[in-house]
Structures are given as structure tokens and as C-alpha cells.
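One record is set out below.
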Amino acid sequence: MENSIGKPYLSMSSEIYDGILAILKENGEKIYQNADVVTPYYEVIQPMMELLYHRFLDDLTAGRKTSPLYRHYLNDGIIRKFYFSGPDEPRPDLQGPHDIVVDFIACMTDDYFLDVFSYLFPGHVLADKVRYVEYFDERFMT
């Protein structure tokens, strides 16, 4: 705030700005440019996401009310009102089923993503490639 007083915009000190740049650089090196992170994402997680996307899109267009898309997402009153203007009439200002499916996947936790994938695609080879680590696994509590 100190650097923004009297200015028509938000400003930060050069020390804070440099710190943010350092964090972004470190994230880039350790996450976004790290083959150990990026390769499994493109080889395992992205294909899982695509399978879920097509499954949920099919469930939505077919009106399968037993789908997790309905049971865990669209049956919520607030969410349903956001997407639909009537019982099953999508709001005209949305991109239709694609928006609903993308939003559902985007709001998933990692745990839910893995659980719903295993539920919908039991025994799928991709699920075996994910190593799930419990939050309180003692091997990683250092």
C-alpha cells in the first residue's frame, strides 16, 4: 500500500517485485520446465482428463442423471441455476455442454479426479500409472 498511495494504480516496491520474479523463475524451473513433472502430466493426467471430458460430455448430452456430473455437480441448486434457465434448458449465453463439463473438471480436487476416473474407468491402464501419496504419508513429512 505504501507504494500505491497517491497513485491511480497499485504499485509495489522493487524489492517485492524482484521477489515475485524470483518465485516465478523458481516455479518455472522446478515445476513447469521440469521433465519429471511435465512428462507424466502429458503422458498420464492429460489423457485421463480427455477421457473424463468425453465421458461427461456424453453423459450430459444423453441426460444420464446417474452420472457423477449430475449427482456431484449439477444437482447442487446454486450450480444448477447458474447453468440452466429452466429444468433442462441451458442458459443461452453459455457455450452449452462444453462449459458445464470443463467447469466440472476444473473444480475437481486431485483426489476426486483420481477417484472419479477409477470409478468410471475401472482397471484402466492410466490409473495404474498414478502414484497416489496420502497427505500424511510419513515418508513425505520431512
Observations:
- The two ends are 36 Å apart (CA to CA).
- The CA atoms of residues 114 and 127 lie 8 Å apart.
- Residues 1-33 form one domain.
- The first helix runs from residue 14 to 32.
